[in-house]
Amino acid sequence: MLPKQFIPLVTVSTVGIGVAMVIYLRRKKNRKPLSQVQFGSEIRKQEFMFYDDVIPCNHGSFGSVPRRVFDIRHRFLQEYESSPDVFESIMKPKYYEEARLAAAEFLGAKPDNLVFVVNATTGINAVLKSLMLDKDDKILVSNLTYPAMVKTAQDVRQGADGTKVVYMDIKFPISSNDDIIEYYRDILSSDPSIKIAIIDHITSSTAMVLPVKQLIQLCHQFGVKVMVDGAHAPGQVPLNLEDLNADYYTGNFHKWVYTPRGCAFLWIHPKHHDTVKPLITSHNYKKSLHKQFYGQATRDESTFLTTPSAIQFYKDIGGMERIHGYTSSLLEWGMTMLCEAWGTETLSIPAGMRAPYMGLVALPMNYKQSDIISQWSPSVLLDMYNKYKVNTAPVEVQGRLWCRVSVNVYTTKEDLIKLRDAILDISGNQ
25, 343, 392, 393: least buried by Cβ within 10 Å? Predict the structure, then answer.
C-alpha cells in the first residue's frame, strides 16, 4: 500500500485539479475584491505571503508573488503532473502562446518580436553571445551597468579574440538627462570601434531612470547597436517597445509585475531575428525565433504561464496609476524621513530621474571604501535580518555606502520607521 503522502499523486488526474480549484475558489471567496483592498497592511495580509514579523523594504531585488498568482502557478504544476504528455504536447503550447500575447500587449510589443527568458541576465547573455564581433570591436558598459552584465561582456571579450570592453565612468551629481546624454556622446564620438552599448533603463545600484529613447537614437547615429537592460522597468514605467526602437530589450516580470521568479522577456528587433540564438540549442534549432526560445529542454516554464494572471493582478489593484500614486508618495515620505533621522542625504539626481519605487539614502556609517563590502555584507545584513527582521539593500556609490529603499503596495510607513531605527541602532554600535 502506498504511503498517504503519495496517494494524491496517483489520483491527481481526476481529483487533484478539482481539489486545487476548490481551495483556490474558497480562498478567493474570502478575499475582498482587489479594487477595494487598501494598500499597505491590508493588501499584505490578504494577497502576500510574508512572515508576520518580516519588514520588507527591498522589493526591487526579488519581488514578491501574490497568493492568487502563486495559486495559479501551483495549478499549472498540478495539471502538468496529472498528465505530463498531454500537458507538454497540447496544453503548454496553448498556455505559452496566451502568455506571450498578454506580455506583448502589456509591453507595447509585437508578439513575433518577443520571447520569454528566465531573467534579464539570460536575455543579455543570449544577445551578446550571439554577436559576431570582429577583432578590435568594443562593447560599451558603464559604472552604472549591472555587475552581471559587465561580467558577461568580459566573458564575451575572452571568447572573441581582440574584442574589448570600454568602461564609462559616470560621476554624481547629475543635474539632468543632458548630462547622461553628453557622457555617451563624448565616448561614442571619440571611439568608432564601439559596436554595441549596454544601457540600463533603470539602474539597479543607483535607482535612476536613464533617457533610453534619446540614448538609443544617439547610439544609432554612430552606428552602435543598443542592448537595453530593463530589469526594473516593467511595472515601474510605461513601456512601448516598438516605439522605443532599441536593437534588443530585456526586462523582468518577476520584480514589479508580480510573476514568480524566473519570468522575463527578450524583445528583438526584426532585423536581428536571424542572428540571436538562445543559450541552449534544442530540437527547434534553425526554426523561427519564437520556436528556438520555446521549450528549452524540460525546464519548468510554469512561471511564464502565470504572466496573464500576474498582469491581471497588476491591473485589478489599479494598474500603474494607483500603484504609482501610493508607492511613489510613500517612497518620497520615507526618504525624507530617513535623511532627517540619519543626518544624511539622497543621491544627487533630479527628482524626475529617480525611479518611481526605489531610491538611495546615504547610510550613517563611515567605512573605508575597501571595507564597504567586507564589513557590511556578511555581518550587518545578517544582523539586520536576525535581530530586526528588516530586509534592505546596501549599495556602494562613489566610495560611499547607501541604502537602496524599494517599496511596493504592501509597504507601510511603519516598515520604513523600523528600517530607520534598525540602522540607527547598528550605526550606533559601529
Answer: 343
**What distances in angstroms separate CA 117 from CA 73, 142, 202, 267, one per listed residue?**
17, 24, 19, 10
At 418, list the grid cell: 523600523
**Distance between CA 406 and CA 384 in Å, rounded?**
16
122-142 per-position pLDDT tens digit:
999 999 999 988 888 999 999
- Contact assessment for residue 253 and residue 66, using Cβ atoms and an 8 Å cutoff: no
For 341-398, list the strands marked E by DSSP.
358-362, 390-391, 393-397
The CA-atom distances, in angstroms, between 217 and each of 164, 175, 213, 250 are 23, 21, 6, 18
Q: What was the pLDDT predicted at 426? A: 82
The residue type of 87 is: F
From residue 244, give the alpha-carbon distance in Å to each of 128, 144, 166, 248, 320: 20, 21, 24, 10, 19
Phi–psi pair at 179, nearest 5 degrees: -60, -45
Beta bridge partners of 394: 403
Q: How far is CA 239 from CA 223, 303, 328, in A?
A: 24, 21, 18
In contact, 37 and 47? CB cutoff 8 Å = yes
Predicted structure pTM score: 0.90
Helix, strand and coil percent figures for the chain, each rounded to 5: 50, 15, 35
- Residue 227: closest CA among 112, 119, 103, 139: 139
